[in-house]
Amino acid sequence: MTWKIVIIAYVLKISYTTRETKTITMRKSIVCGLLLAAVIAVCFDMSDATCGHGVSCPSGYIYNPHSSTCYKIVTLSKKWDDAKAYCEGNGDRLAVFDSTDSISWAKHMRKTHSAWKGHINKYIWIGGRDYHGVWQWDGKLKKDIVVEDWYPQRPNNLGGPQDCLGLFADSNDLKWDDGTCNTAEYFMCEKY
Ligand SMILES: [Ca+2]
């Protein structure tokens, strides 16, 4: 009889332990699930380039998979320096396109994306500048522009020094032009 009681007690102990383990496992799963949900919620709420390698951008910005950054055409007319200050004031920079893929992407977006195609024929400042005869991307790095996409016969310094870089459209052929920095134009910011 005693040994039966011992066996029953043992079985009950195992049963209780298993249930306890299951409960703990379940609790752990719930906690993990809640944490994951919280992280996802924060990512969606931030909705910027810090989550998922920039798959989502802030409202009004378009994600460029080639640079993993976000771009926005700002429909305010500003001189190049003021445009640069505006972008930087928002934690952005004037747009940089330093690869053929990014340049092609921008052309494609201006022709097809609902937010950009309305500006297909607008002159738009981007982040390049002629510093003493060397075209460079502005910003902290100030690196030389290596990959180029100039419109034919550009840069041409038409009517005087033209030291700032603009996206120029002619018959929908979107290319680069050297523009007069003090001319007020739309511009493009990049969240990087
Ligand atoms: Ca020019």
Automatic annotation (TrEMBL):
This is CLEC17A. The keyword NAD does not apply. CDD domains: CLECT. Residues 66-190 form the C-type lectin domain. The keyword Disulfide bond applies. Coiled coil: none annotated. It holds the Pfam family Lectin_C. Keywords: Disulfide bond. SUPFAM superfamilies: C-type lectin-like (SSF56436). Transmembrane segments: none annotated.
